[in-house]
Amino acid sequence: MTRWLVTGATGMLGRDVVAALRAAGEGARTTALGRDGLDITDAARVREAVAGHDVVVNTAAWTDVDGAEADEEAAAAVNGTGVRHLAAACARHGARLLHVSTDYVFPGAGTTPWAEDAAPAPENAYGRTKLAGERAVWELLPAHGYTVRTAWLYGAHGANFVATVLRLASEREVLEVVDDQTGQPTWTGALAPRLVALGRSAAAGSAPPGVYHGTASGSATWYELARHAFRRAGLDPARVRPVGSDRYPRPAPRPSWSVLGHEGWARAGMAPLDPWPAMLERAFAEGVFADRARDSGGLPRP
Question: What pLDDT, in 10s, does the model give residues 191-223?
């Protein structure tokens, strides 16, 4: 009987992981702790929380990319030191750790998908702090540590790009969206069940430890994603216009190429996640953005 701990359980991904565990019949054996319930920068509290659990799914993180550029030390306390505390506690108590990381550990330019074993070289503070967390998992849990890199997340529970463009559709006739950054839009509602499946395989000893890439298959620019979201919401995609990243300068540099390879899943006997258009279609079909789409003037009210 597997006992689960989900950290960051009140965040966008964390809430979907808890829902996926319930759907898988694991709800009664799941401890879900948000930031108020567990500050992962507190080593003693982390040791106490991990005790008695078999699998820890860490979705807790400092996710403010530009904020990390301004205060890298604070971001590193969560993304680096906090993860080290979790890894040390898992090593102490014999638990498996599934740690969620990011595509930002890689350089900003490329032409082919980054493999799981490609050399990291982050170009912003956020990426550096997340890489520190990955290294803690590698060092302290070589046999029981699983790092799942993801990117471009959207979902029902929190701020994200798809929700933002649908909100802006009700405020602006034309939206300018960058078309020179390429990545993999990934729905938390699809990633969460995969994390549960990996955790089960890890607990059973059938999934080897290491790095997995938890992003949708295929690739798109933000502009292409916005047009797809408009179309699916019943809005005119011609209202979305392409612009360069220089139109929206940010404190932290964003990668122009952020596409991950998925060969690692074969090691665990699993297929890669679905292509991003199919994933986005499923999210809309399940009503994730129904209210936002109606508020934008798209889908009719029932």
Answer: 999 999 999 999 999 999 999 999 999 999 999
Crossing angle for the helix pair 161-169 and 222-232, to the nearest 10 degrees? 60
Long-range contacts of 246-251 (CB under 8 A, 24+ apart): 247/176, 247/178, 248/178, 250/65, 250/66, 251/66, 251/69, 251/70
> Is a pLDDT exceeding 60 seen at residue 89?
yes
Measured between alpha carbons, how far is 159 from 271 in angstroms, rounded to an integer? 29
Domains of the chain from N-terminus onward = 4-159+185-218+259-274 (3.40.50.720)
Q: Do the Cβ atoms of 144 and 295 come closer than 8 Å?
A: no
Q: How far is it, in rounded angstroms, from Cα 34 to Cα 15?
A: 9
- Choose the catalytic residue: 104, 126, 146, 212: 126
Active site residue 126: yes
Q: Which residue has the tokens 């500050």?
A: 39
In three-state secondary structure terms, 73 is: helix
Residue 43 pairs with which residues in a beta bridge?
none
Helix (H) or strand (E) segment spanning residue 30:
strand 30-33
For the full predicted model, state whether its pTM sits above 0.90.
Answer: yes
CB neighbour class for 211 (10 Å; exposed up to 12, middle 13-18, buried from 19): buried
- Report the alpha-carbon distance of residue 211 to residue 242 in Å, rounded: 34
